[in-house]
# Entry
Amino acid sequence: MISTATKQRYGDRMHDFAIDRLANPEDFYAELLGAADALTRDEPDAIANMANLAALVWQLVPDLNWAGFYRRIADELVLGPFCGKPACIRIPLGLGVCGAAAATGETQRVPDVHAFPGHIACDAASRSELVVPVFNASRVIAVLDLDSPIAARFSAADQTGFEQLAALIAPRISRPEQA
# Structure
C-alpha cells in the first residue's frame, strides 16, 4: 500500500496513453507531443525521461522495430534507453545514420538503409530509419533513432513530428555535463 506521504511527494504517476493512429499526421503528432510533455514535464532525470519517451514512441508509433536514444558523450554516441533488439553501444560521430545526424546536426530520413553509405546494421530486419538530433543550445546532445522493417516507412510528416518532439524534450534530457 502506498502511504499518503508518498502520494503527496510523487502523486499518481500512472499514465495510459491511447492515440488514434489513424488520425491525420498533425493530430497524431499533437497528441504524441502532449503525451511526451505529460510524461517528462516534472521529471528532472534525463535517463528516466529518455526511457519513458522511448517506451511511449514504441507503444504508439506503428511499424517500428527499434526506438530509442543515443547520447553524445565527447566525440561519440553512446547507447541510451531504447525499445527493440540489443543495439550497437558506441557509434563514432559521422558513422552510420545516427553518426551522420549527430555530426551534421541534420535529421536523417533514410528510405532504404542498405543504400546509405556506412550504414550500421544492428538489426538485419531494419529497412528504413529516421534519426533526429536533439540540441542543447547549438550542440547535439543526443539523437532519437527510429528503425522500421518497412522500406520508406517515414514521411515528411513523421520527420516534422519527431523534430517537434526533439525540440520539446531537449531541455528535459540535458544533463549539466552536456551543457
Notes: The chain is about 35% helix and 25% strand. Strands lie at 66-73, 76-84, 90-92, 108-110, 128-136, 139-148. The CA atoms of residues 23 and 29 lie 9 Å apart.
